[in-house]
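Database export, one record per block. Field names are fixed; values are copied verbatim from the stored entry.
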Amino acid sequence: MIIYPAVDIRDGRCVRLRQGSYSDMTVYGDDPVAMALKWQNAGSQYLHVVDLDGARGQGKNNRDIIGRMVKALGIPVQTGGGIRTMADIDEVLSLGAARVILGTSAVRDPGLVEEAVSKYGSRIAVGIDAKKGLVAIEGWEQTSRYTAIEFARHMEKLGVKTIIYTDIATDGMLTGPNLEAMIEMQQAVSMEVIASGGVSSIDDLVRLKQTGVAGAIVGKAIYTGAVDLKEALKKV
């Protein structure tokens, strides 16, 4: 199982949200590139980067920072937030990102997913963020009519190879991941499932690995020190 340290960017700074709420935000640094290098130096194999300004769709994004991050790192980066058109996908992948994550755009425009997968194959991932079982969109501020499982199966039919599955209720709460939801998703599809939300300890990561998921995103826990990333990478 790959551990993905998360770097969430808002207004050019490295931040964390609780349960996806923009009004409940903690700033952990003014230099996301330096933060990314810190996690690489701890031994990470892959990085997860979210452009929170882009996710809100208000015309502002942090792609210049993401581009600098990719150039500074020697490990692959997957990134999402505000990627809603083929032009967006082309731009972000041209920056050197290994994989882009489609979220709201995948719900609103499955045709975009199909086109993107046809062009870029496994470099296209889909983020499935569940709020009470339903897929959330627009930076988690709205919910769609799809259940997470329904939507995942639809994405699999379109050729998507990787999903990032987030349980919003646990995100940023350090209460432990929703293992039942991860097991259910893992059993429902044959895609690679990357679990996100709630990791609070190395034990949580061990338990996630036992569910069979391909990866786990760790955010707040490594920023608060609840998880020592070097230790986690050794044990998982």
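Remark 1: The two ends are 7 Å apart (CA to CA).
Remark 2: The mean pLDDT is 93.
End of record.
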